[in-house]
């Protein structure tokens, strides 16, 4: 291995690394032994120069993201091993099913031991999304590791324009790294969804709600369903499949509504019990008293930073209060937060306050999280970003 700059930690600041936490904060650093640039591979050591880990240096409060706690060569074989490990995990848990499911997250950053890297798979195309300069700089190597490791992947697309660090020195541009493909339908639990990774949100689909969509299906039969912030209609499709009497999908984006209608038509060409609306959420919900007995609230992240946490919690309270006031007696509310800085406890308190203000009797049926292909690293609890509640409302 070539000689690397060493990031020497202050006395007592190495404890988290011994517990395999993958972040080194800038305040924990005593000294760096050589000049480094953002994205450089560095070796992290304690103040006795004992090895702790290898990672990428970056500018910011998180100064190093560690991806190896073993002192070894970081080459193409290393990345292949990481990707193979992530792929085998998803195979062994039965997630990838031929003819049923070819939509899944292959690499979930810290959850799979590779901070700064997301890889989502849609049929024969892998979408990479980078959140660190270090990972972005080796995107060609990572793309090669994907196609070398996983049979059936013929194209790798980089969609990082919107996710790269804003203070970084590199400006990312979306585009194919290997091969080419077109936006297409892919399968989730036998249902078809049109995936547009070129212009869609995230990598083209909200994969992280797969298991929660399936759970919704169990409660949909005969119910009148309102899917708020519906994006491309994932929850709506599952409600339709499972016998909902009526399904309404709402999103502020007209393009998202077009995709929702496309997904409904592809799966249920003869159905006439679905309607989609491109409207503001609060405006739509202002006058729906007792019209629906199953409501889904899956808004975009209200808080991406700690300094707006209070406003976000107030937003969740307001949104849930409106839904709880409007839903029919005996209704079921699926409500979510995807804000990483909002803890399960904070979210639950906001919904509790909403229920109290709405003066409704509410039972918690389920407490929800992210699915198995979005794993939470035991040593990195910050990776638990998706939380949800299923409520029975009297």
Please give the order of strands in the largest beta sheet: 16-15-14-17-18-20-19
Strand proportion: 25-35%
Averaged pLDDT: 95
Low-confidence stretches: none
Helical content band: 25-40%
The fold-level CATH name of the largest domain is Rossmann fold
Tally of individual helices = 10
Explain this structure.
The chain is of the alpha/beta class. The chain folds into three domains: 6-68, Roll (Archaeosine Trna-guanine Transglycosylase, Chain: A, domain 4); 76-186, 2-Layer Sandwich (Transcription Regulator spoIIAA), CATH 3.30.750; 206-393, 3-Layer(aba) Sandwich (Rossmann fold), CATH 3.40.50. The protein contains ten helices and 20 strands. It has helices at 15-18, 76-92, 133-137, 139-149, 210-218, 234-241, 254-267, 281-284, 309-326, 344-358; strands spanning 6-9, 23-25, 29-32, 41-45, 51-57, 62-68, 103-108, 117-122, 125-130, 155-158, 175-178, 184-188, 191-195, 224-228, 246-251, 274-278, 294-297, 331-337, 362-368, 387-393. It has a seven-stranded mixed β-sheet with strand order 16-15-14-17-18-20-19, with helices on both faces. A six-stranded mixed β-sheet has the order 2-6-5-4-1-3.
List the helices and strands and how they pair.
Blueprint: E1 6-9, H1 15-18, E2 23-25, E3 29-32, E4 41-45, E5 51-57, E6 62-68, H2 76-92, E7 103-108, E8 117-122, E9 125-130, H3 133-137, H4 139-149, E10 155-158, E11 175-178, E12 184-188, E13 191-195, H5 210-218, E14 224-228, H6 234-241, E15 246-251, H7 254-267, E16 274-278, H8 281-284, E17 294-297, H9 309-326, E18 331-337, H10 344-358, E19 362-368, E20 387-393
Parallel strand pairs: 1-4, 9-10, 14-15, 14-17, 15-16, 17-18
Antiparallel strand pairs: 1-3, 2-6, 4-5, 5-6, 7-8, 8-9, 10-11, 12-13, 18-20, 19-20
């Amino acid at each position: 291995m070539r000689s690397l700059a060493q990031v020497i930690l202050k006395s007592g600041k190495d404890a988290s690394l011994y517990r395999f936490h993958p972040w080194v904060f800038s305040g924990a650093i005593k000294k760096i032994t050589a000049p480094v640039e953002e994205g450089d591979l560095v070796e992290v050591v304690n103040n006795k120069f004992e090895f702790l880990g290898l990672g990428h240096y970056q500018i910011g409060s998180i100064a190093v993201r560690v991806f190896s706690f073993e002192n070894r060569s970081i080459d193409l074989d290393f990345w292949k091993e990481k990707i193979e490990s992530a792929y085998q995990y998803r195979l062994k848990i039965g997630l990838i099913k031929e003819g049923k499911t070819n939509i899944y997250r292959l690499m979930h950053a810290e959850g799979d031991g590779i901070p700064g890297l997301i890889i989502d798979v849609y049929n024969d195309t892998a979408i990479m999304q980078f959140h660190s300069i270090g990972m972005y700089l080796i995107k060609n190597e990572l793309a090669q590791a994907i196609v070398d490791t996983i049979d059936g992947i013929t194209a790798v697309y980089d969609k990082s324009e919107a996710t790269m660090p804003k203070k970084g020195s590199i400006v990312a541009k979306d585009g194919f790294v290997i091969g080419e493909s077109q936006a297409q339908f892919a399968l989730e639990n036998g249902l078809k969804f049109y995936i547009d990774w070129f212009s869609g949100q995230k990598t083209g689909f909200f994969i992280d709600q797969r298991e929660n969509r399936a759970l919704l299906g169990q409660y949909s039969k005969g119910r009148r369903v309102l899917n708020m912030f519906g994006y491309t209609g994932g929850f709506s499709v599952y409600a339709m499949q499972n016998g909902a009497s009526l399904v309404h999908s709402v999103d502020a984006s007209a393009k998202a509504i077009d995709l929702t209608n496309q997904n409904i038509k592809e799966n249920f060409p003869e159905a006439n019990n679905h309607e989609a609306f491109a409207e503001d959420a609060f405006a739509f919900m202002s006058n729906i008293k007792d019209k629906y007995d199953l409501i889904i609230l899956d808004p975009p992240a209200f808080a991406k930073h700690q300094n707006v946490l209070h406003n976000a919690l107030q937003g969740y309270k307001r949104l849930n209060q409106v839904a709880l006031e409007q839903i029919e007696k005996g209704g079921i509310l699926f409500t979510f937060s995807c804000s990483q800085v909002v803890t399960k406890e904070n979210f639950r308190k906001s919904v509790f306050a909403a229920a109290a203000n709405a003066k409704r009797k509410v039972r918690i049926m389920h407490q929800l999280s992210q699915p198995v292909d979005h794993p939470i690293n035991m040593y990195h609890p910050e990776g638990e970003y998706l939380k949800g509640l299923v409520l029975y409302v009297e």
